[in-house]
């Protein structure tokens, strides 16, 4: 893993592992030149997400979640 990728991964790892199961470097990539971050095969922790939904007064409850690909 290159230096930039390591730095970005380190900065988001704690937050991501709070909301996702098995979040590691293989599910994460940074495109240096375009400035994009790509995440793959993310399995969401419903209990943790539902805590936030409940705190915000949202009527939504997550039963299960999988994000196959996201790029931002």
Sheet having the most strands:
4 strands, antiparallel
Our count of helices gives: 2
Number of domains: 1
Helix content: 25-40%
In terms of per-residue confidence, which ranges show pLDDT below 50 for 5 or more consecutive residues? none
N-C termini distance: 19 Å
| Average pLDDT score | 92
Strand tally = 4
Q: Could you state the order of secondary-structure elements as H and E?
A: HEEEHE
The Rg value, from CA coordinates, equals 14 Å
Backbone structural class: alpha+beta
Oligomer: single chain
Choose one word for the global shape.
elongated
Proportion in β-strands:
25-35%
Please describe what this structure looks like:
The chain is α+β, with helices and mostly antiparallel strands and 72 residues long. It has one domain (3-71). Helix content is 38%, strand content 29%. The protein is built from two helices and four strands. The chain has helices at 3-19, 46-55; strands at residues 20-21, 28-31, 36-44, 66-71. Strands 1, 2, 3 and 4 form a four-stranded antiparallel sheet that branches. A hairpin with a 4-residue loop joins strand 2 (28-31) and strand 3. The chain is elongated and about 40 Å long. The mean pLDDT is 92.
